[in-house]
Structures are given as C-alpha cells and as structure tokens.
Amino acid sequence: MKTFIKSAVASALVVSFAGLPVIAEANVPLKHDSEYVIDGKIYGMPKAKIYRDDYNGPAVVGDYVTMVPHLAELDYKGNKEHEVRMDVFSQKVEVAPGVSYNAWTFGGSVPGPVLHVREGDRVVFKMKNRSTEEVVITKPFKGASPYFDQIAANQLQKHQPVVAPMPHSMDFHSGTVAADDKWATIAPGETIEFEWIANYAGTYMYHCGTSSVLMHTAMGQYGAVVVSPKEGYPTDKEVDQEYVIVQSEMYLEQMGDEYIYDHSAALARDPSHVVFNGHVSALSENPLKSNAGDRVRIHFLNAGPSGTSSFHVIGAIFDKVWAEGDPRNTWYGMQTVLLGASSSATVEFIVPEEGVYKLVDHEFADAERGAAGALYAGPRKK
Amino acid sequence: MYKWLSVLSMVVAAQAAAEPVIIPAGEYKPAVLLDETVEVVVMPAFKLDAAPVTYAQYLEFVSENSKWQRDNIAAIFHDGNYLKSWPGNEQVPAEYEDKAVTQVSWFAARAYCDAQGGRLPTLDEWEYASNYYLQQQNLSDKAYAQMLFARNSNPTAYSKQHVDANIEHLEYMHNRVNEWVEDYQLLLTNGDDNDLLAGSCGDSARFMADFGDASYATFFRYQSRSNYRPQSTTSTLGFRCAYDMEK
C-alpha cells in the first residue's frame, strides 16, 4: 500500500514540473491495492459490490447533494471522500400543468439530484433499487442530504410515491471505470456499491444504462454531477450566483386519464415536452435571481436523451464558456451554446441591467415545447 | 376463520376448474433474435394455463406444501420478500384471491408448476403463445406496445382476473404481470451465459428482428425479465404453467 501512495506523490510532482498547477493537498490518498496513478489521476477501482440489505433510510444522502437549480458550496479545502446515496424508485411527477406520469427516478425527482464534488475527490456511491416500495421524499428525513429540504420547499412536480418494479442501473459519466461491474443492473431489493474518482473537472451526466436505455432515460433517470476544478475557474471570485440547469425531452402520450411513455415518439425524436429542470414551468414559477451587473454562472447539461440544445439567454452574451465545464476549454463571447445529448457547458454572463432575461433552447421547436425559463434581475447593488 | 375458509374453497374450486388451453403447433418469428441463424422457430403443440396463477390457487399449493409457505421457504430460494404481503402462512391479503399471484421467485414458480404436473413454459413457448394470443385478440402492434409500456409505469398486477371455467383461449397475457419462464436468463443476462455487451446503453439493435412498436415492446419485456435473479420477487412478477400434450 505504501508504494502506491508514493507513486501518487511522485506523479503529482511530475505534473508540477511540467508547469501545470497542482495543489499539494489535492490528492486523495490511494485506498485500494488495485489503484494506480497516471497524470495525477487515480484509476483501478475495486469491483462493485451487489448485495441485499434492509435499508429504508433517506433515499438521498450526501452533504453536497442538492435539487436543481441549487449547487452545494464546497466548504472544504483540497479533496475529500464523499459518501453518496441515490436510491432508485418510481415517483409520480408533474412535467407540465395537468400532465403527470409515473417516472423512474434517482432520488424521486426528474432530473435527479445534483452532486457537487471537487476534481480529485473520491465518491463512495450506494444505490438501492427500491422500485417495489413507495418511497416518500416530501418529508424531512434525519441524515438526508440538503436535497430533501429543497424538494419540500418546491413542490412544482407534486411528487407522489408509486410502485413500478423494474431492474435499474447507474452510469456516472464523471467516473472512469469499467462499466461491466460498476454500471451493472440490479434487481429490485438489491443494492450496488462502488467507488469512482472525479478525475476530470466538468459537468457530467449520470443516467440509468439498463436496456432499453432510451426508455429508462426518457422515463426520468438522469441528472448532473458538477466537478469543480481543483484550481477553480479563473472568475471564481467575481461570480455572484451559480446555478445548474438540466435540459431533457419527455415523450408522453395520453392514455385515459394518465400519461404514459411513448416509445414510438422517442424513437422518432418527437418529444411531447422539452423541459429545463424537469417541468415546463420550473424556471418561470421559480426564476433564477440576480442583480444588474452580477456575473452569473450556469452549469448547463443537455441530458437528451436524443435531442440537441442551443442554449441562449435573451439579452445577454456569454462572456466565457467552458465546454463540458473543463477550465482548459475556454470560449469567449458566445450568443448560443450548442450541446449534443449528454454534453454540458459552464457559461457565465454579465447581467446587463434590471429586468427579465429569458433562458431558451434557441431551437424554437424545443422552446415552444417547454424549454424556456427566466432570470429576474433586480437593481444594481455594487 | 371457518367462514373465511369456506368462501375461499369455493373460489379455489372455481379457479381450479379452468383447463389449460391447447396451443397448436406452428411456426413463429421471434421479435428478439436469440440466435442470429434462427429466424423462424418451429413449435410443437403444448398446453398453457389460460391465465396467470392466482393467489387462491397459490394458497392451495402452499397449504399442501408447507415448505413453500412464507415463513418456511429456504432462504436460498428467495430474496427476502417472498409472499411478503400475505398476513399469514395460509392467508392471502384481503380480496386478493382472484388476482395474479406475485412476490413469487422463479424457484417457487417452478415448484408450483411441478406440483400441478406441469412446468414453467420455455421462453419460446411463452412468446409463441403471446403471438397466438395477439392474433386471437386482433390487437394491433401499437395497442400491444401501449399495453406493455403502460404496464411498466402503471402496474396492472393489482386488478382481478375473471376466467370462465370453460375458456378455450388465453387471457391476461399482457395486462396483468410479467411472467417467469423456464429459461428467462437466456438473453442478455447477468449470469454466466451473457452477451458481452448485455444490451445495455443502447446496444440492442443487434438483437432486434425489426424496429417496430411491437418488437421494441417485446424486447423491453424480455430484457427487464432477464435482469431479475431467480430469487427475485416483486409485486409485478407472476407466472403461469405449461404442460406437455399427452402422448
């Protein structure tokens, strides 16, 4: 084990000599004998464990796990190990006025919770398939993440527990691991546990990879992990607000009084709704807030499952855009950011003056189906 | 207690009276290609229960086979939730007698069918019977796909079944429960015989005969079933039994 830690330090030194910034304390020590380091990044996670237990505690656990559009503040220095749980279960959610469906979810909302970590952090992840249970997320739960309080305070999706037994899995794009054991499908009642290192900074999608992956994602199984760079973004000290937006398509058809998934529409890429943060009104009922002259940062993920997004803020220009959220990928002065399915960008803009700034997918067929929201700007305070 | 038993015995008698349905010999084209060299499967005739096994029928089985009762089943044969909703070893949930029994593992389903002189249908038999049923019911591909996709988000397992004792056709193939089959793990499983890519993350086109509504719905039903373990018990997974033709 000692030799592994040595090699981690040595590798960090090599990176420093190469002239790239490295924070000395920013290396999580190697934990398992299988691990090794390349370019300061840790690989070789142990195999996932799949087991059954009677867990019936809070469905979402982790101090840095929030509900969109919130992002938890990283109030620690360097790197740490995160214990994170996002159970998988079904929940009736509203996506447009009068339109609810029985979603398959991570943590009960669509999109699922936002996980915030720092580049180099280790995540020890647990997920129980509780699709055979009615799981309540609208009541406070001791030991639960901040996500629960935020859900309780924002009932736009009108969450109701439902039972829809189904095998599911979890695929974190932020993890660099072999998918065959880590992203394995688990049957109802089973728990999967695995680790990954946030080796790369950026905003990453997570989703269920169980076949049909189109159906599982379209049913609501996706969300965002924000991996903040070790050294931060160059504008960290100037940023006034930081938000997360996840865009996605819904493919629903009415059947009696209910709405069900429409696989033909999903294959034809003909969504019934395109939404920011899971509801056509998510960012108009609860608009983002700022003031004139503020620098606003948005981590924007297009979860798809199949469409593109052309994100635009009406009245603003993106001062800086980091493609995929990696600070090495800087673009300047962009009016619109085009994102394929599962692509992201971290964008910043200066709020020009007091007023209302519409956020849209400038592919207007998408905007007309719900991909629109707003940022309200108060008077200048600086 | 006595009164309750007598009511139940009437229900059991009515249920037990329905004879299995004869599925005539024929050919069918699988919607999901288990073997890329086999496009058409030739099926001999066999018999299949007209409807999924009900709570009342299953109660009769556990009454006669105490080792398959909720509190007596061997731990290796289930995932901890076997018959979990039953109030007692020989008592089904109130008003569940006519519903499709669920929370039954593959092991338990096999034992039940064995006790009836039958067996679980093979995957081919079940799918062939499903095609036969869809033709009999004159269901369009779209209607069939809707039925399956609706069931996956709004489970139908909790509806009662009404089966005529003299019925000669299949009932409730797609609007009650997903059903165990003998070789359910053949395709894209997590077991030893799995396909390398296991059909995950969009890798399913290789297994599809065509990309129509019906085939996709069928594929999805296969795939979700193949991801269960033989110990799995859920509130939407049931079964019916098959029987060989008398020689």
Secondary-structure topology with pairs:
The complex is a heterodimer of chains A (382) and B (247).
Chain A: H1 2-17, E1 36-38, E2 41-43, E3 49-52, E4 60-61, E5 65-66, E6 81-86, E7 88-96, E8 99-106, E9 114-118, E10 122-128, H2 146-153, E11 160-161, E12 171-172, H3 179-182, E13 190-197, E14 202-207, H4 213-218, E15 222-228, E16 241-250, E17 252-255, E18 258-261, H5 263-267, E19 273-276, H6 282-285, E20 288-291, E21 295-304, E22 309-313, E23 318-323, E24 330-334, E25 336-339, E26 343-350, E27 355-361, H7 364-368, E28 372-378
Parallel strand pairs in A: 6-10, 9-15, 16-21, 20-28
Antiparallel strand pairs in A: 1-2, 3-13, 4-6, 5-9, 7-8, 7-11, 10-13, 12-14, 14-15, 16-19, 17-18, 21-26, 22-25, 22-27, 23-24, 23-26, 27-28
Chain B: H1 2-16, E1 21-23, E2 26-28, E3 41-43, E4 46-48, H2 55-64, H3 106-115, H4 123-137, H5 141-153, E5 178-179, H6 213-226, E6 237-238, E7 242-243
Parallel strand pairs in B: 5-6
Antiparallel strand pairs in B: 1-4, 2-3, 4-7
Domain Plastocyanin-like (chain A): 91-138, 185-231
Organism (chain A): Pseudidiomarina marina
GO molecular function, one term (chain A): copper ion binding
Describe this structure in words.
The complex is a heterodimer of chains A (about 375) and B (about 250). By secondary structure, chain A is mainly beta. Chain A has three domains: about 1-45, no CATH class; about 45-230, Cupredoxins -  blue copper proteins (Immunoglobulin-like, Sandwich); about 235-380, Immunoglobulin-like, CATH 2.60.40.420. In chain A, about 15% of the residues lie in helices and about 40% in strands. In chain A, the strands form seven sheets. Chain A has a six-stranded mixed sheet. A five-stranded mixed sheet of chain A has the order 3-13-10-6-4, covered by helices on one side. In chain A, a hairpin with a 6-residue loop joins strand 23 (about 320-325) and strand 24. Chain B has one domain (about 1-245): paralog of FGE (formylglycine-generating enzyme), CATH 3.90.1580. Helices cover about 30% and strands about 5% of the residues of chain B. Chain B contains six helices and seven strands; from the N terminus they run H-E-E-E-E-H-H-H-H-E-H-E-E. Chain B has helices at about 1-15, 55-65, 105-115, 125-135, 140-155, 215-225; strands at about 20-25, 25-30, 40-45, 45-50, 180, 235-240, 240-245. In chain B, the strands form three sheets. In chain B, strands 1-4-7 form a three-stranded antiparallel sheet, with helices on one face. The longest helix of chain B has 15 residues, at about 1-15. Chain B is globular. Chains A and B meet through strand 8, helix 4, strand 18 and helix 5 of A and helix 5 and helix 6 of B.
